[in-house]
Specification:
Blueprint: H1 12-27, H2 33-47, E1 53-60, E2 63-71, E3 77-79, H3 83-91, E4 95-97, E5 115-123, E6 126-135, H4 143-159
Antiparallel strand pairs: 1-2, 1-6, 2-3, 4-5, 5-6
Helix pairs in contact: 1-2, 1-4
Length: 168
């Protein structure tokens, strides 16, 4: 596949309006779910501005285990209910955290991270993991990011067979 290049846009909404079709084009013709998750992590990491980590934690035997990502070395295992990722799993909802240092139980995998968004991956009522994105900028993520990153997970759910990767 040809390199997509960095997506450039005037507004956050128009950026995501270009990112979502790029994501769908990237993963729709590939049947290997792991390859698709890897490319999704790369697409997000290389296109979102002001982030230092983008990737996935996958449910395996009752806890989150590190999956494909872009960024520095990360925590490998996260218990349900711990940190932002574990809270998103426990509560089955997206967390937008403006300042991770004020989040009770935050797990500091990278001391440079100051804000975070975590979107649970739920398909057919089953929680398979989370999409996790960190930023060194406080208040980096907002409602627009939440809406569009939840849509990105919906796009992924159309093509990725999470049951081949997760152990729920």
């Amino acid at each position: 596949m040809e390199n997509l290049g960095k997506i450039k846009a005037d507004t956050k909404e128009s950026f995501y309006d270009m990112l979502l079709p790029a994501l769908e084009g990237l993963i729709s013709s590939e049947e290997d779910s792991l390859a698709n998750i890897c490319n999704t992590a790369s697409l997000l990491y290389n296109n979102l501005d002001d982030i230092n980590w983008a990737g996935f934690y996958i449910m395996k035997d009752g806890e989150l285990v590190l999956g494909p990502f872009g960024g520095k070395i990360a925590c490998v295992r996260i218990k349900v209910g711990r940190g932002v990722c574990g809270s998103a799993v426990r509560d089955k909802k997206t967390y937008v955290v403006p300042n991770v240092h004020e989040f009770e139980g935050h797990i500091a995998c990278d001391s440079a991270s100051n804000s975070e968004i975590v979107v649970p991956i739920i398909k057919d009522g089953i929680l398979y993991g989370v999409l996790d994105i960190d930023s060194p900028i406080f208040n980096r993520f907002d409602e627009v990011d939440k809406i569009y990153l939840e849509k990105a997970v919906e796009v992924m759910n159309k093509y990725i067979k999470w049951e081949e990767i997760a152990r729920v």
